[in-house]
Every structure is written in structure tokens, then in C-alpha cells.
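Sample pair:
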Amino acid sequence: MPEEATLRIIETEEVIAGVKWRARVEASWTEEDSSLVEFEDPNSADDEKLITWFLEDYPVSDPFNAGKATKARNTLRQYGRQLYDTIFGGPIPKIESILLIVVSSSGKSQFQSLHWELIEDHFRYARFTT
């Protein structure tokens, strides 16, 4: 099994503007053809506001709001888990690292604005549990 792998996610269609997309997922560690997957933004507008607050305001101007910060962390974990499950859908081989390449179908698509970096924690955990 390779230590490093590449995962390409290529948007093929924006189903609902800014909310739902179809994409081809190609993994370098499998001989199978690419699979067509439907992605949906896991966050509501309120969730996005909470994440923005957590990343921008909490550390500087609101560091004692622990309850809201906990809610934001949980939102981030759930978001990452949902993206991870959508992409992988099950166990993956033990790979040390994955290069993630996300390709949008147009300059107007918001597909790349999904928080792809949030799958990293779930990927690291999955490496040691499969």
C-alpha cells in the first residue's frame, strides 16, 4: 500500500447553487473507475456565522464564551465527519497522507468553498482504526 495517495474530486454539476453538487471522485489507491458522488453543504447560514465567530472573534474579542465555542467545535467536527463520509463512504486503506485535489466546474461555483480541510481529523483517525 502506498504511503501517499491522491484523491481528486472533480465537480461535474452544480445541482443547487451554493448548496448541492455532483462530483467524480478518483482515488489513486484503487483500480476501480471513479464514482459519482453528490455533495451537500453540511452547514446552514447560522452554522457558517458560528464558525466565522469561532475563527475570527472568539480568540481575540470573546475568549470567555466557552459554551458558544464548544458548540462551534462540535459543528466543525460534524461538518468534517459528513464530508469524510460522503467522500470515502467506508473504510480506506492505511495510507500515511492523501493529497486532496478539488476541481470546480466553473469560476462561479462555490464547490471549493466547502471546508475540505475538516476531513483531515477524520482521515487521521480512520488510518488507525481500519
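DSSP finds three helices and four strands in the chain.
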